[in-house]
UniProtKB/TrEMBL annotation:
UniProt-recorded name of the protein: RNA polymerase sigma-70 factor (ECF subfamily)
UniProt-listed InterPro entries: RNA_pol_sigma-70-like, RNA_pol_sigma-70_dom, RNA_pol_sigma70_r2, RNA_pol_sigma70_r4_t2, RNA_pol_sigma_r2, RNA_pol_sigma_r3/r4-like, WH-like_DNA-bd_sf
PANTHER family for this protein: RNA POLYMERASE ECF-TYPE SIGMA FACTO, RNA POLYMERASE SIGMA-70 FACTOR ECF SUBFAMILY
Residue ranges occupied by any RNA polymerase sigma factor 70 region 4 type domain in the UniProt entry: 120-171
GO biological process terms held by the UniProt record: DNA-templated transcription initiation
GO molecular function, one term: DNA binding
Signal peptide (UniProt feature, chain positions): none
Family: Belongs to the sigma-70 factor family. ECF subfamily.
Length: 176
């Protein structure tokens, strides 16, 4: 299956629309599911999915074939999700307008964590940067190894280890 995706990407890189349709049909369902696990806003998930596959279409020609295609695709999607999270945090606030917490619902993971952990931990997790939260989600909630997390997020293993260490340190400091 992985080799098929690599072959499809090579064809997509040459502008083959049928190969892209097959690539999309094969990978969009699992990618949408994975995005929904981190974001309950269906419109945002749909937008992120479109942005991810548009980026994949544009970058397919430069894909060298090193690493797994699903990891490459997930790294594009996760960066888009982090960017969307950053944009939401820096959005200017209007006086007397409802804040973002009132307009968005928490993700399924956030709801599960809220029921399982005390309020201090939930607040400490909310204060983590999106990059640190993404590493914690992948390693703790998804149960991925450092190597798998690096592959999925498109980061070097050392960066994943450093971010995991920083996230734990920040959580410890916030909880002590």
């Amino acid at each position: 299956m992985e080799e098929d995706d690599r072959q499809l990407l090579r064809l997509v890189g040459k502008g083959d629309r049928q190969a892209f349709e097959v690539f999309y049909a094969r990978n969009a369902p699992w990618l949408a599911l994975r995005l929904r696990r981190r974001c309950r806003d269906a419109d945002l998930v749909s937008e992120l999915l479109q942005e991810t596959f548009l980026a994949a279409w544009r970058a397919a020609g430069s894909y060298r074939g090193d690493g797994e295609v699903i990891g490459w695709l997930w790294s594009i999607a996760s960066r888009r999700l982090i960017d969307a999270s950053r944009r939401a945090q820096v959005r200017p606030r209007i006086v007397d307008a409802p804040d973002d917490a009132q307009l968005t619902s928490p993700s399924a993971e956030e709801e599960a964590m809220a029921g399982a952990y005390d309020a201090r931990l939930e607040q400490a997790l909310a204060r983590l940067s999106p990059e640190l939260r993404a590493v914690l989600q992948a390693t703790v909630l998804d149960g991925l190894t450092i190597r798998e997390t690096a592959l999925v997020l498109g980061l070097p293993e050392g960066t994943v280890k450093t971010r995991a260490m920083r996230a734990r340190r920040e959580l410890r400091a916030a909880l002590s």
